[in-house]
Amino acid sequence: MVVIRNTKQNLINDIGKNYFSKLYDFAGIIGYSIEEDEEIKLEFNPDRPDLFSFYALKSAMKIFYDGDYPIKPALHKMESLLKVDKSMESERPFAMSFIARGKPLGKYYKHIIDYQERLHDTAGKSRKKMAIGIHDMDKITPPFKFIMKRKKEISFTTYDNFHGTAEEILVNHDKGKQYGNLIKSKTSVPVILDSAGDVLSMPPIINGIKSRIGENTSNIFFDITGTDYNAVLHALYLFAYEMTFIGYSVSIPEITGKGKKYDWREINLSRGEIKKVMGIEPESTVMLLRKMGYRCEIASNGYHVKVPGNRIDVMGPVDLIEDIAKAYGYDNIEEKMLVTSGTGYPYIDNDYNRIISDILISLNYQEVKTFVLNSGEFYRDTGYAGNVNIENPKSLDYSIIRDKIFPGLLNILSINRRRSLPVKIFEIGDVIVSGIQESHLCILFNNSRASYSDIYSVMEYLISRTAGRNFRVDQAEMPEMIKGRGGKIIINDIYSGVIGEMNPAVFTNFGVQNPVAFVEINLESLFSGIK
Fold first, then answer.
1. Which ranges of 363-405 would DSSP assign to H, the alpha helix?
2. Is position 339 within any domain?
3. Which of 297, 332, 367 is at the close of a domain?
4. Which of 151, 333, 347, 352 has minimal Cβ neighbours within 10 Å of its Cβ?
5. 65 exposed, middle or buried (CB, 10 Å; 0-12, 13-18, 19+)?
């Protein structure tokens, strides 16, 4: 998942009150979720990177609601200013660029820096596949050259005033320490030089001070370099279109190779394909495709559809049909009975979960579901022991698999701080502990005087209905518990979970003010006792 966020007032100022009011309606069409608290937070599936900013979202809404269909190309043509030396073939062989011109950046300065890092984390896989440099064009003179130079011999000053050789920057600068391992060569580094021979950047590590941008910059040169052609191509079009969305005139060199006709590439869509996937072919298919940002014309056997360069998610006819269905409205498609080859039967673990769920609901507890993926920061004060990281996360907010459930329930409390007390919630779900997948149950009681006895009585009743009464709680010191107010649950002499009053340092970190008592238990210990 990818999350974008801003305050309500800033959003109204940036995209206008009219489009702000359409965010919720458009969410039902596109499929993103919205949370509104101190900030407006939008959460996207990774399949729509073209919408990972509020300015891009505004542009999509203008097309959908106002009929502002794209007619002329958004990007202008220009001669290439960046020459790639043959020495780059084994290091970072792909390089593209574009120029954006307009008014001084002002408030957009922070946005394009944030957007740059978002692309680094997503399309660039933390700069492994692609990295972006942003330069003040008025301070430098083309043509620019992308070349390998010996790291002990070339020196420059970084954008944040660190001066030294490339080798010293790699060893001593924070960015060098963080990304230096991405450079394969042991003796040389990739650099972009201007016509005066000055270093503009050392991809994928850091930019130089000569071309540093600021709020007064109005003429901007972007370089996109990498080891993966598609990652570089996609980042080029995503960023180029983003600059048009905030009002800049963008010029782009002729693209060579397999991406030569990527912007407004043509996909032929037959009527039979639409009916096979959707079940129907809407009469207004042409207008539906135009509302989703495509150019579309009727052909003899279907439609000629042209796809803009920033729609990197569109790979074939099925992606177009999905957008037709979204614009048409899934609720407007008539339901039909599915034809199956057999009859299903319940999964036994689901039956066990239902029994536990029914017991807790009878005690006035409400079942919730939280995310399996979260960030390392999310588990900072609870101790993470899952040892499972997503290798290429679309967002660092969702980069590790949870090893416990209660932090997610604390987040539920934080979101619902205005709800009256007590709050009684539970979740049944999977976690990974030290590389091993387990099913856990977490029950959480939040009240002005939540105590150990409150949660113990619930656990005692649940275990008596499932695993019998052969259990005990051994007192233990744990960072998530108040000292002397919690312990380990032992069922049939096997460690099965934890119970107690939560340490205020943990729940206040999530913005929860009132005391919390909870139990988290491995369900296998309970399943064994269910008849």
1. none
2. no
3. 332
4. 347
5. middle
User: Per residue in 197-214, pLDDT tens?
Assistant: 999 999 999 999 999 999
Rg (CA), the chain: 28
Please name the amino acid found at residue 445. F
For residues 221 and 235, give the distance between their C-alpha atoms in angstroms, rounded to a whole number. 14
Q: Is 421 left (phi over 0), alpha (psi -120 to 50) or beta?
A: beta
The 10s digit of each residue's pLDDT in 398-413 is 888 999 999 999 999 9
82-84 and 144-150: which strand pairing? parallel
- The pTM of this model reads 0.71
Residues 172-200 as b or e (16 or more Cβ within 10 Å = b): ebebbeebbebbeeeebbbbbbbeeebbb
Look up residue 401 and give its amino acid: I
What is the per-residue pLDDT across 351-361, written as a single tens digit (0 to 9) for each? 788 889 999 99
Same domain, 162 and 242: yes
Instruction: Answer with the one of 259, 289, 306 that is the final residue of a domain.
Output: 259
d(CA 488, CA 477): 9
What residues make up the domain containing 270? 265-332
Indicate whether 96 belongs to any domain.
yes
